[in-house]
Write a structure and sequence with these properties.
Blueprint lengths: L30 H19 L7 H11 L7 H14 L35 H7 L1
Helix pairs in contact: 1-3
């Protein structure tokens, strides 16, 4: 499927809500993918929402891809599927302070008392004699 029979958008497509700095500057899209989204994104968006009816085989195939993403063949279709996932799916959040699963340990409650410490060995006489 080529993009030749896929209509250009009537206006450039931008998603300032999710990609404020542009598609390519987000780091998620290449320059070629950004160009596809800007040039064809308006048409793809309108086709997806049902506001525009498909006029060519490429546009009908595009609608089939929206139902089953595994059928994406052209760069245009793959770019739109990528855009959908990045713009609409929940973003994964990785925190550095997440819950840490501690290994199970044996709880040995050992009480130490003052009598367990050998304080008899340390006397003032021993300390003074070292100097």
């Amino acid at each position: 499927m080529s993009n030749v029979d896929f209509r250009l958008g009537k206006r450039p497509f931008y998603d300032n809500k999710r990609f404020r700095r542009g598609f390519a500057k987000s780091g998620d899209f290449t320059l070629a993918e950004e160009d596809i989204l800007i040039r064809f994104g308006d048409t793809m968006s309108l086709l997806e929402s049902g506001e525009l009816s498909p006029e060519s085989e490429s546009e009908r195939h595009f609608l089939e891809v929206l139902k089953d993403e595994g059928h994406a063949e052209s760069k245009l279709e793959k770019t739109w599927v990528k855009y959908i996932h990045l713009a609409r799916d929940r973003k994964r959040f990785h925190a550095l302070n997440g819950k840490k699963h501690e290994p199970e340990t044996v709880n040995e409650d050992v009480d130490y008392s003052d009598s367990d410490v050998l304080s008899d060995d340390i006397t003032d006489d021993n300390i003074d004699s070292d100097n």
